[in-house]
Amino acid sequence: MPKGLAYMSKLAGKVAVVTGASKGIGAAIAKGLAKEGAAVVVNYASSKAGADAVVAAITASGGKAVAVQGDVSQAAQAQALVEAAVTQFGRLDVLVNNSGLYEFAAIEAITEAHYHKLFDVNVLGVLLASQAAAKHLGEGGSIVNISSAITDVNTPTAAVYAGTKGAVNAISGVLANELAPRKIRVNVVSPGYVVTEGTHAAGIAGSEMEAGFVAQTPLGRAGRPDDIADVVAFLASDEARWLTGEVITASGGIH
């Protein structure tokens, strides 16, 4: 930075909750918001160690963060998560609904359990966390929902997962209009293929499937979690004050 030029953090003084932030894209979003000056509640469902590591990285860089366990598909836990942010930091300005399950099944293999498992977290979780947050968000508040570019590419075996993300897009548009009179913005970031712990665990990273995704990507590489985090930080900030109801596809050009 040139001497004498002070950098003004986009989110200085703001408080954010990021659901599903113990790893992958969620962890990068939490770190990115903290880098821009926000105090961050790092939510996790089961990986306390992962969430604690994210908090440690944020505090080591001079930021503020706490880890809070909670299953957003349970109303009481979603409410407690938001209340924890208000109790710890005194307010709430940003909610990032990142929690999500990623699981594919061919039409012959779809079960009620598979359907409910994905829809409870990916869709009901967005509704319950947004419901809890809306009680505390004021003018200038921002909700950012993480969807997926899979809604546009019709990947075989992804009917249920793609269905959850299509629902997230529709819900976001409705909430954008519903909360607009209160000057609360609601937008969507729709990532393309991003290399995370999840893609490694699923055997996609380094596979022919990944090579196929990259081959279709005009910018010629797989996404990184921070590619998504930077877009979220923008939408969470006042720089995006005239944006609501938008779906921003962050995919390196895949459509």
Automatic annotation (TrEMBL):
InterPro entries the record matches: NAD(P)-bd_dom_sf (IPR036291), Sc_DH/Rdtase_CS (IPR020904), SDR_fam (IPR002347)
- Cell membrane among keywords: no
Q: Which UniProt keywords apply?
A: Oxidoreductase
Q: Which family does it belong to?
A: Belongs to the short-chain dehydrogenases/reductases (SDR) family.
Tell me which SUPFAM superfamilies the record gives. Answer: NAD(P)-binding Rossmann-fold domains
Query: What is the taxonomic lineage of the source species?
Result: Bacteria, Pseudomonadati, Pseudomonadota, Alphaproteobacteria, Hyphomicrobiales
Source organism (scientific name)? Methylobacterium cerastii
Q: What is this protein called?
A: 3-oxoacyl-[acyl-carrier-protein] reductase FabG
One protein family per Pfam: adh_short_C2
